[in-house]
Amino acid sequence: MPTDRPDLTALELLVRVGELGSLGGAARALDMAQPNASRAIARLERQLRVVLVHRSATGSRLTTEGSVVAEWAREALAGVDRVVVGARSLADDHKPHLTVAASLTIAEYLAPNWLARLRRHHSELQVSLDVGNSHDVLDAVLAARVPLGFVESPYVPRTVGSTIIRHDRLVVIVAPDHPWARRRRPVTAAELSATHLILREAGSGTRDTLEAALARAGHRVSELEMELASTAAVKASVAAGTAPAVLSELAVASEVSSGSLVSVPLDEELDLGRPLRAVWPRSSRPTGVAADVVRIARSRR
């Protein structure tokens, strides 16, 4: 096996001369002084015992032999690049990684801040956030696809471990020109039940919370005006004047503050408060960075 291997920079210079037709241009492309580039090519020619570059007043071009060697050099450099990329990929595989699942409201309005704070303390940590409705998150936790999830369901199964991290409240929102926007008398459970609403899809924590609250008051959700799978779509439909909706106050705080949506008062018989929970496989309580996420989520900062 040859031991006098050529310098990789010299090989790249040779390739660039063939591409640019100029030794000076090749040197500039590699941020080298031209005298250094000339010496590198001369050294390469001595090592390989073949003339590679024909120099003239009008520029530099590869000799026939130089063209062949340049093609081999291009292949060799591509191989080196694969080694570097592959090695870095292997290094990334060994970096600590955490995947967290969160229901939509939590994922949009709370989790990004939690994970940013986590990364400030664990700069080498790679973090992934899987987003779905609360049922999706619970399924991922129960199947041990993720070590930690966050849900907004009123109840969680006993087959998962959980802790309440904070409390949230659902509100009824309407467009500013909707008749309910000017009412002072609270909306009752019976009125809300009889109203065609825009709601999140079945399986979302928001929908589950509303249905449970109406059931406690002896009512149920009537026929829907619209069922949408994203909070943003629900807000846009309400703002267009389609119908009222029920969403987390976290999700509508900025729109209510700006006046683009109006929060309607509700009768006290309808309790739309709900806990937000961290959940995990019952057999493996969060430790390490997963426990840090739970601690950050509970800190309310």
Describe the structure concisely.
With about 300 residues, the protein is α/β, with parallel strands linked by helices. Helix content is about 45%, strand content about 20%.
Write the layout of secondary structure elements.
Blueprint: H1 8-20, H2 23-29, H3 34-48, E1 53-56, E2 59-62, H4 64-93, E3 97-103, H5 104-109, H6 111-121, E4 126-132, H7 134-142, E5 148-151, E6 160-174, H8 189-194, E7 198-200, H9 205-216, E8 226-228, H10 231-239, E9 245-248, H11 249-258, E10 262-264, E11 273-281, H12 288-298
Give the key terms.
two-stranded antiparallel sheet, 7-stranded mixed sheet, 301 residues, Arc Repressor Mutant, subunit A, single chain, D-Maltodextrin-Binding Protein, domain 2, 46% helix, alpha/beta, 12 helices, elongated
Can you walk through the features of this model?
- The two termini are 63 Å apart.
- Strands 3, 4, 5, 6, 9, 10 and 11 form a seven-stranded mixed sheet that branches. Strands 1-2 form a two-stranded antiparallel ribbon. Strands 7-8 form a two-stranded parallel sheet.
- The protein has twelve helices and eleven strands.
- Strand 1 and strand 2 form a beta hairpin.
- Helix 1 crosses helix 2 (23-29), helix 2 (23-29) crosses helix 3 (34-48) and helix 6 (111-121) crosses helix 12 (288-298).
- The protein is 46% helix and 21% strand.
- It has 301 residues and is α/β, with parallel strands linked by helices.
- It folds into two domains: 8-93, Arc Repressor Mutant, subunit A (Orthogonal Bundle), CATH 1.10.10; 99-277, 3-Layer(aba) Sandwich (D-Maltodextrin-Binding Protein, domain 2), CATH 3.40.190.
- The mean pLDDT is 88.
